[in-house]
Write a structure and sequence with these properties.
The protein is an alpha/beta fold. It contains eleven helices and nine strands. The strands form two sheets. It has a six-stranded parallel β-sheet with strand order 2-1-3-4-8-9, with helices on both faces. Strands 5-6-7 form a three-stranded antiparallel β-sheet. The protein is globular and about 50 Å long. It starts with 7 loop residues before the first strand and ends in a 6-residue tail after the last helix.
Length: 269
């Protein structure tokens, strides 16, 4: 793993149905390596108001989480987006790049974006639109109640490369998700901003059953911008099955992001 750097804090933005607790070992591993790490939450996951909870509302929640770290602690953030989390994370980070904040005379900011088999969706589109107007076959609509959705079969979809007992335990922690978050239009995305040129990365999960590699490739290709790409031989939950390898990849990306600022004479605070 890259040399520890307390100036960098990773903000993990969860995938749909995934509670923050499922990323606990991932967070601990990054913290033990000398980095800051935290998990942002958003209202569409286990939503209390599924008929009004859009992906924009999710972006606002993630942005608030990021702003508390940036404004109160002048943190340098790397957003690590998993699956659906790529949509709210992109909206949350828009305008918050370190480059933009330096121009405003402010400290802290987002120094880069890492997408782990995550949705890269342009402004005005939605997850559903981007997939051709049909939900993935594992999405079970209006379950357990109207406007919510569950995922089935969860083990085979999300945890296919993890031992049976661990996979079952993780699958049991998943929660229903508001369907409107999938159907609502995305906000302007940070990944499209020039400030993130050379500061975007995509982790391709080669055994992913939720988002097969051809879909991951489509995300990258249709974005129209450049990405650092890392292949990992893992399923959708590589942060569990390939914890060390994923951690090494994202910390390596983060050091590259920070180095790009150092070359420009704007070292991390």
């Amino acid at each position: 793993m890259a040399t520890s750097n307390p100036n960098i804090t990773f903000v993990i933005v969860p995938g749909a149905w995934h509670p923050s607790s499922i990323y606990g070992d991932f967070v601990s591993h990054l913290q033990e390596a000398g980095y800051g790490a935290t998990v942002a939450t958003y209202p569409s996951c286990d939503s209390q108001s599924p008929k009004t909870t859009t992906c924009e509302e999710d972006s606002k929640a993630v942005r608030q989480h990021c702003m508390s770290l940036i404004e109160k602690e002048s943190k340098e953030l790397v957003l690590v987006c998993h699956s659906y989390g790529g949509i709210p994370a992109a909206g949350a980070a828009f305008g918050l790049s370190k480059e933009n904040r330096l121009q405003e005379g402010k400290n802290g900011g987002v120094i880069g974006l890492v997408y782990m088999a995550a949705f890269v969706v342009p402004e005005g589109s939605s997850l559903l639109m981007f997939l051709g107007g049909k939900h993935a076959p594992y999405v079970v609509p209006d379950t357990p109640s109207e406007g919510m959705a569950t995922a089935s079969p969860a083990v085979e979809t999300f945890f296919n490369d993890i031992d049976k007992d661990t996979a079952a335990r993780l699958a049991a922690t998943l929660v229903p998700h508001a369907m409107l978050a999938f159907d609502s239009q995305a906000s302007p995305p940070a990944w499209a901003e020039p400030a993130y040129e050379g500061r975007r990365a995509f982790v391709r999960c080669l055994q992913d059953q939720a988002l097969p590699t051809f879909i991951q490739d489509m995300f990258v290709q249709k974005s129209g911008v450049g990405w650092h790409v890392k292949d990992i031989d893992a399923g959708h939950s590589a942060y569990v099955s390939r914890l060390k390898e994923v951690s090494e990849a994202i910390t390596g990306f983060a050091e590259k992001f920070e180095a790009s600022y150092l070359r420009e004479g704007t070292s991390a605070a």
